[in-house]
Amino acid sequence: MLEKNGQDKRSSLRRAALAGLAAAGLFAATAHAQDQFVDYAKKFVAQVTDPVIPWTGPTTGPKAVPGKTVVYVANDMRNGGARGVGMGAEEAAKIIGWNFRLLDGAGTVSGQNAALSQAIALKPDGIILGSVDAIQSAPLVEQAEKAGIKVVGWHAGGTAGTLHDPYVFWNVTTNPPDVGKAAALYAVAQSDGHAGVVIFTDSEYKVAIAKSDAMVEWLKKCTGCTILAVKDTPLAYVSSRMGQLTTALLEQYGTKWTYSIGINDLYFDFMAPALQSAGISGTSPPFSISAGDGSVSAFERIRTQQYQVATVAEPLRMQGWQTIDELNRAFAGAPPSGFVDPVHLFVHSNLDSDGGPQNLYDPTNGYEDAYKKIWGK
Question: Mind listing the domains of the chain with CATH numbers?
Answer without folding.
Answer: 42-52+177-311 (3.40.50.2300), 69-174+315-341 (3.40.50.2300)
